[in-house]
# Entry
Amino acid sequence: MADPAIELRGLSRHFGERTALRDLTASVPAGATLAVLGRNGAGKSTLLRILATLLRPHAGEVQVLGQPLPGRAFAVRGQVGLLAHEPLLYRDLTGRENLTYHARLHGVEAARVEEVLDSVDMRGRAEDPVRSLSRGMVQRLAICRAVLHRPKLLLLDEPRANLDPAAGELVEPLIGRTAGATRVLTSHDPQAAVAEADLVLGLQGGRAAFLGAPGELDPAGLKDLYA
Amino acid sequence: MRTALTILRKDLRLELRTFETLPAMVLLSLASFVIFHFALARATVDGQLAAGVLTVTLLFAALLGVNRLFVAEREQGGFDAFLLAPVDRTSLLIAKATALFLFLIVLEVIALPAFDLLLLGSSLGRSLGGLVVLLLLADLGIAVIGTLVSAIAVQTRARDLIGPIIGLPLLIPALIATARGSGPLLLGHGATFPQGKWLLVLALYDSVFALLAYAVFDYLLED
# Structure
């Protein structure tokens, strides 16, 4: 069994009076893929943001890549790639300018920018401002940004949103199983997420309603998560 | 420092591409001078009155820049992207304060000749050097305080109100020192260099708030 890349023990997080995550306990081995499922507002994005060090846990223990959060957040940043709902790209900069900016922040060589642009077939539109690109193209650039620094942990919130099948194939080597990173992903398509997961965490109202292997989750159980 | 330069370069590029901040600052100051020109119903103003008009106009124009300083970071996810990078967060403070400082310099390069023409009757020549030194020190303070205030305000829903509400009281010492220091320079044939005590007040003010900003900026970005 590989060392855990993520360890959660009794994790809770509130936003004012509302509890977004409650007493969550889970362990994800390095290199594995965790699919986080649940209805809108179940706590999926909050979990991803805590793992990305953008939010602090309010109770419980969180370890990411062997480092406790939030205490050792600095050591984790740079090893985590977050693909969020928002692309985290400046609309008035070109794709290449955006990626070059992020490459410099992460201390990544300039050649890597061209490499990722090539891999998602965006080199031809790299000089266009992001605001002029289609949603699918922006998503491809957002994926480039998330993997630019070769993260060990990929946090993917609806990674294939706005991508057509051809674009989905293009990004596969960057964010798919073959990328070699530990992955935590959410998806609007639960069947697809379960199909590529080693572990499934079902959230209901911030609580873990299911945690186990994909084979242990029957169709009725999957349907319950979205009821 | 390298990270701060990267962020600064990005900010300047964004401004050059969108012209969302500087033109508004310049237009506000020019419009204010025109309004004062007619409202005061005098061919020229001088001394403390001229200093007050100049200082208040530049301060309000600066507040426009302060309000816009972190808008792209907030609206386009720049904050999150920055926070995900393994870099010293103070670099964001340095970059934003430097960007605002540069905006203020460009503003004054355009606004000072207009002020001289519309309200001083082109009498600024002799004391221009002294005024520039005073304004540079004031700009430094405004840039640091403005960045601090903007970082707080942008996290709130009422950011357009919070900026001036917090910023103006904090900027009062700089306003006093700049207005009092520049009054004698705008007397026509008055002093050519500001009194040392006002330069000292501004330098002290800049140093204190620069240290304060350095100490608390990390916490402002925390969840």
